[in-house]
Specification:
Shape: globular
Strand content: over 45%
Low-confidence stretches: none
Order of helices and strands: EEEEEH
Largest sheet: 5 strands, antiparallel
Mean pLDDT: 84
Number of helices: 1
Helix content: 10-25%
Number of strands: 5
Strand order of the largest sheet: 1-2-3-4-5
Length: about 90
């Protein structure tokens, strides 16, 4: 999924937040989304991991540092014009 499609995610507390999908990748049997909070070039980005629970698909912000480094490098290689900085 490429092209900055917009998605709205609902948190456990019912609040909603919109993100722009930069890219989707399936790596080692897991699905990841690279999303940003803005369509601008200098936007804050997050990597979300898809987690299936019964009949529901959820997304969690990737927080494991080792996994985050690996997946961010994959997205950088996939999207040549994108530079990700981990903070």
């Amino acid at each position: 999924m490429s092209g900055n499609g917009k998605i709205v995610l609902t948190a456990d507390d019912g609040s909603e937040e919109a993100f722009f999908v930069v890219e989707k990748a399936d790596i080692a049997g897991k699905s990841y989304l690279l999303v940003s909070d803005s369509p601008e070039e200098e936007a804050e980005a997050f990597i979300l991991r898809e987690e299936s629970e019964e009949d529901m698909v959820t997304y969690a912000v990737l927080e494991d540092e080792k996994e985050l480094v690996i997946i961010s490098k994959y997205f950088e290689e996939l999207l040549e014009e994108v530079e990700l900085r981990l903070e």
